[in-house]
Amino acid sequence: MRAGSSRVWITRAKPAADATAMRVRARGLEPLVAPLLIVHPIEGVALDLDGVGALAFTSANAIPAFAALTSERSLPVFAVGEATAAAARTAGFAHVVAADGDVSALAHRVAADGDLGLVLHPGALEPAGDLAAALTAAGIEARNLPVYRTEAAGVLPPAVGADPPGAVLLHSPKAARALAALIPPHWPPAMEALALSPACAAPLVGRGFRRLEAARLPNEAALLALLEP
Fold it and tell me: Do the bridges between strand 142-152 and strand 37-41 make them parallel or antiparallel, or are there none, so unpaired?
């Protein structure tokens, strides 16, 4: 964090951004929630649960969109991380298992449970990774189901442009690309960009950040650890 600034810009979409803000505040820092991505449920999704034995979520954003399509809550749920698992429990799913990493880690966790039948992955229209392909490669029948899309912010949030915070958190490559498109040439001279993974950091290479670093592991605990002085 740059000297004199304890503000941390959280760029991920709500409601996940609010959970991150609580964790940032618990570290004695000031969270600034200003999403660079806006989540929109996809209308007219044709949901077919015939033969589905489990659900897998790579983003908390997919859970309310999927939950609005059906009252089914008895299927076991595999979540990419604890934050996504918490969102699933809040939505009423009783049997939830959290992996601790990225799409690859989630695929390995699902595969460890053996024969589950068809695994349905409700997710983004443009996902960062192809979970169904990873599961299929592991011998598990799987299908992706887009239930939401994200739209990049077209302007820099006023609260950020007026007084740049000490650090910005990037949870997805798409958010990082949105930020790269909005950075003015003269800014930010002393901000740190902290990314969930190397793929999240890549769009910001050479964009003038005082420090650009990816988390050691692709989870939020490792990302927030980068905020330590």
Answer: antiparallel
Asked, colleague to colleague, whether 7-38+152-225 and 48-149 share their fold, the answer is: yes
The CATH number of 7-38+152-225 is which of 3.40.50.10090, 3.30.460.40, 2.30.30.30, 2.60.40.1250? 3.40.50.10090
DSSP strand pairing (211-214 vs 192-195): parallel
Q: In the predicted model, what is the mean pLDDT of residues 90-112?
A: 90
- Cα(136)–Cα(180) distance, rounded to whole angstroms? 34
- Measured between alpha carbons, how far is 20 from 23 in angstroms, rounded to an integer? 5
In the chain, domain spans: 7-38+152-225, 48-149
- CATH tag, 48-149: 3.40.50.10090
Average pLDDT of span 80-108 = 89
Question: Cα–Cα distance between 130 and 138 in angstroms, integer?
Answer: 13
Residues 111-115 have a mean pLDDT of 83
C-alpha 31/C-alpha 160 separation (Å) is 12
C-alpha span between 163 and 141 (Å, rounded): 49
Whole-angstrom distance, CA of residue 25 vs CA of residue 72:
35
Tell me the mean pLDDT in the region 164-187: 90
Contact 82, 98 (CB under 8 A): yes
Whether residue 37 is predicted with pLDDT greater than 70 in this model: the reply is: yes
> Which letter, b or e, does each residue of 55-77 get, where b requires 16 or more Cβ atoms within 10 Å of its Cβ?
bbbbbbbbbbbbbebeeeeebbb
